[in-house]
Fold:
Amino acid sequence: MSMKAVLLVFLALGSYNVVESQLMTGSADVPYIRPTSRRSALERLKEEIDNLKESIKELTTAVYKHNAEHKADHSGLKTMISVYCQPEEREPTESNPASSCKSITERNPDLPSAYYWIRNSDGTGTRVYCNMNEEAGCGDGTRGWARIAHLDMSDPTHQCPAAWKEITSPKRTCGRKNQTLRDRGGCSSVSFSTHGIPYSRIRGKIRGYQVATPDAFGLYIPVPQSSYNIEYPYMDGVVLTRGSPKKHIWSFIASWGETLTNNQGCPCNPQTDTSGFTIPSWVGNDYFCEAAYDGSTCCPFGSFFTDDPLWDGQSCQSDSTCCQFNGPPWFCKELSETTTDDIEVAICADQSLGDEDTPLDLIEIYVQ
Structure:
């Protein structure tokens, strides 16, 4: 339906409302109609109005869907729509933001994934991308997730955050920049704002790549595990935390061989000798662990494995259980509290960049 046709429908609806009001008050400047005929005419008019209002509701959804998909701005039309729709059926605005992405799709499940105004903890509105697809949920069919981090280095318009170094070859990725641990390793961190949106669930995925010999929880520099904490590069890979002091969300761990039997392998692999390390208490079972290399000796300094991305749940060695552990690529974390904490993504390792690194090319993080 064209915008002109839409406007004509609204004008017609306005005329109906005026006539209805005049008939009900007796002020209509129309020829005399017998009372019984007037009541019959009014009933027919009300029926037409009800039918037309129902069509307007359907049209409202179609218009918002069109606007979201084509980034159109028909502010005048939206104003007229808001006159005839109940408040809970209107598209959220900056002055009247929705309480959450979930509340939007619960009120109108036909609305698409798009940017909407969401209420912050201080009551103001923030423009946020809402994923309305069921597959974005935690496996329970829950829709309406607010995206707070999105990086896709296959898109030439996306750039690495300043705290990370862009790697252009052999794969366009983002890697560690600083090396703070005895001039060998450390973490390079980027904080992603949640815009003050309250949440108690986190959903996300990260895709990275193995460089040389990351060794999971095996520490190159001997440090008593009792002396390091969540601020220390306690593993090789990527760690997600929130707030200050930091609270662990999820660890994406890299090894140089999933089937290693020494203490440098993935703890989700039953062959790994876990007597040489202890999974930190703040990590628990909230991790993925994979390797791109399949062999017993590895790897030339600076070698970059592009054929088998990490933490995608694919191409694990036949005798490894790591592709099934926690069901990668998506993680889901239920919090014991509601928070507005920003989320930090840190690429960590305890050796130099050529010895071990896990540059990444994809981040998707949602909250609800």
